[in-house]
Amino acid sequence: MSDALCAAAVAARQFAHAPFSQFRVGAALEDSSGRVHTGCNVENATYGLTVCAERIAVFKAISEGARRFSRIAIAADTADLTPPCGACRQILWEFCGDIEIVLVNLQGYRESLRLAELFPRPFDASFLK
Ligand code: THU
Hints:
Layout: H1 3-13, E1 25-31, E2 36-40, H2 53-63, E3 69-76, H3 86-96, E4 100-105, E5 110-114, H4 115-118
Parallel strand pairs: 3-4
Antiparallel strand pairs: 1-2, 1-3, 4-5
Helix pairs in contact: 2-3
Tetrahydrodeoxyuridine binds next to helix 2.
C-alpha cells in the first residue's frame, strides 16, 4: 500500500547531512497529484539551525507549487519507529492538515497513523480570525 512511498523515504535518508547526531532521517511526502517530494535532515554546527527531514520535504513541496497532500512516510534506523518532532507536527498540520503518517524503519517495520493522533488540539490559523 505505502511501499513506494516508504521506499522513497528510505532512499531520501541516504542524503541526510547528520555529522553531529549521526541520526539520519528521510521523508517522502505525496501530494494530491501523486507526486512525491522527498527530504532528509540537514544539520548545522549551531545545532539550532538544523532542519528535520519532514520540514525539508514540506518546504520543497510548497516551493514547487504543491498545496494538497495525502501521506508522508518517515524513515529512520530505530527499532521504535521514529515519530516527527513537535516543530514538524506544527508545520505538517499547517500545510497538510490531518494527513496519514507512515513511520518505517530499515527492517521494514511500519505503523500508519493520522497526524491528529500525534498532534491533538493544535494551534492554527483558525485562532487568528
Ligand atoms: N530528526 C528528523 O529529521 N526528523 C525526526 O522526525 C526526528 C529528528 C533529525 C533532526 C536531527 O538532525 C536529528 O534527527 C537528531 O535529532
